[in-house]
Amino acid sequence: MDPVSPAWRGRRVVLGVSGGIAAYKAVELCRQMVDAGAHVAPVLTEDATRFIGALTFSALASEPAQTQLFTGATGDGSEHPIPHTRLGQSADVVVVAPATARLIAKYAAGLSDDLLTATLLATRAPVVLAPAMHTEMWEHPAVQENLTTLRRRGVHVVEPESGRLAGGDIGAGRLAAPEAILGAVLEVLTHGLDLAGVRVLVTAGGTREAIDPVRFIGNRSSGKMGHAVAERASARGAAVTLVTAAAAGLADSFAAGPVEVVPVVSAQEMHDAVLSRFDATDVVVMAAAVADFRPKVAALDKLKKADGAPEIVLEPTPDILAELGTVKRGQVLVGFAAETENVAVHAADKLARKNTDLLVANDVSDPQAGFEVDTNRAILLDSSGASEETPLLTKAALADVILDRVAALLGREPVNPHQEMR
Ligand code: PMT
């Protein structure tokens, strides 16, 4: 977490703790958030108090820890008769760590039979859940379906890690590291899950067009730009599908996470993957470097050097973005333009020709921008003719600039994340 981020200062965090062995780890979360300047109100389920004392939280938090639905302390010494509404209404964010299978099931079902679940229903603030449980429970379809329901409502889930669990077992289900949970909370405080419920499809990487079984026509795209857009969109609450032609390892960070990863190789495969999902998509960001041409015929066997230099006849690939531009029905289309000269002019031409709402033009002859590197700078053009030039940014920061523009095009301010969008 960034302990000096001003986003923490004075923000009201309800820290929910449910009954699992990882409850003791919530003490450290509480301390770090208080140190960062947040006002932390701990709420423990009765089961949580079997693992850790409420007094420990009271000693560290900004107000006494609460456990009961019907009496509560307000922090100013007076009792509040209905603490869940006070806690829920005044929260800037509610974070539950650890969230047990039972807590998740009750929240998904709308049950409010204790202070924590009642607070979760009584809040319009964003909610961050950090599940922790044994592997068998974590993988149970009931738990996963409940989490899918909650994600669809805009709840942010910080996936558990693999590691040592209670009783010495090893597997998936260990509470995420404090930095991951605090990072997610800070994210929510900064962006407010402004893309909650939005379905975003991102393409990434360079397509490969086969010459024969071992050779291909490719390009320098690493996939970093597209993957950054997918990662940031997911962090801001979007339901993300990443159609990627990048090398396999790059998508590892999405393993078991909420981003749906669809690996593809060629322009045709990328075309088919994107078009088949387009109707169920609100936003498409085409960051992939799609080959414009492919060999008309790919040899079935490896071409032999002894046969002499092959004559490779090329044919155009489908222009995915241009096709989306002709069939779109209200979707926001974001294209990229990889240019080496006259960047703004060529980009404006692509914006119009491919009927996109936003075009992100990068100068790929700049060694700090474009292909492979971790940084990029761009000119953003929109269909009204307005343009904005960014400074040199990390690809993640540029992704946020692009997504800010997408959010504005969707009319999104920081929203009530509990309303299902569709
Ligand atoms: O992957 P990295 O190493 O991080 O590098 C990032 C990047 C340089 C690849 C990225 O920032 C970028 O510029 N992506 C677009 C590359 C590209 O193909 O640009 P273009 O100007 O040739 O194409 C214009 C747009 O049409 C792009 O959105 C492209 O995805 C799309 N296109 C192009 C050809 C085609 N057949 N179908 C398409 O949809």
Topology, please?
Blueprint: E1 12-17, H1 25-35, E2 39-44, H2 48-51, H3 54-60, E3 72-73, E4 79-80, H4 83-90, E5 93-99, H5 101-109, H6 115-121, E6 127-131, H7 135-139, H8 141-152, E7 156-157, E8 161-164, E9 170-174, H9 178-191, E10 199-204, E11 209-210, E12 216-217, H10 224-235, E13 239-244, E14 260-263, H11 267-277, E15 283-286, E16 293-295, E17 314-316, H12 320-327, E18 332-339, H13 343-353, E19 358-363, E20 375-376, E21 379-382, E22 387-389, E23 393-394, H14 395-409
Parallel strand pairs: 1-2, 1-5, 5-6, 6-7, 10-13, 10-15, 13-14, 15-18, 18-19
Antiparallel strand pairs: 3-4, 8-9, 11-12, 16-17, 19-21, 20-23, 21-22
Helix pairs in contact: 4-6, 5-8, 10-14
Ligand PMT is lined by residues 221-225, 267, 286-290, 292, 317, 319-321, 335-338, 350, 362, 364, 370-372.
Folded structure, characterized:
By secondary structure, this protein is an alpha/beta fold. It folds into two domains: 12-190, Flavin prenyltransferase-like (Rossmann fold); 199-409, 3-Layer(aba) Sandwich (Rossmann fold), CATH 3.40.50. The chain contains 14 helices and 23 strands. It has helices spanning 25-35, 48-51, 54-60, 83-90, 101-109, 115-121, 135-139, 141-152, 178-191, 224-235, 267-277, 320-327, 343-353, 395-409; strands spanning 12-17, 39-44, 72-73, 79-80, 93-99, 127-131, 156-157, 161-164, 170-174, 199-204, 209-210, 216-217, 239-244, 260-263, 283-286, 293-295, 314-316, 332-339, 358-363, 375-376, 379-382, 387-389, 393-394. An eight-stranded mixed sheet has the order 14-13-10-15-18-19-21-22, with helices on both faces. Strand 8 and strand 9 form a beta hairpin. The protein is elongated, with a radius of gyration of 24 Å. The chain starts with 11 loop residues before the first strand and ends in a 13-residue tail after the last helix. The relative contact order is 0.10. The model is unreliable at 415-422 (pLDDT under 50). Bound molecules: ligand PMT.
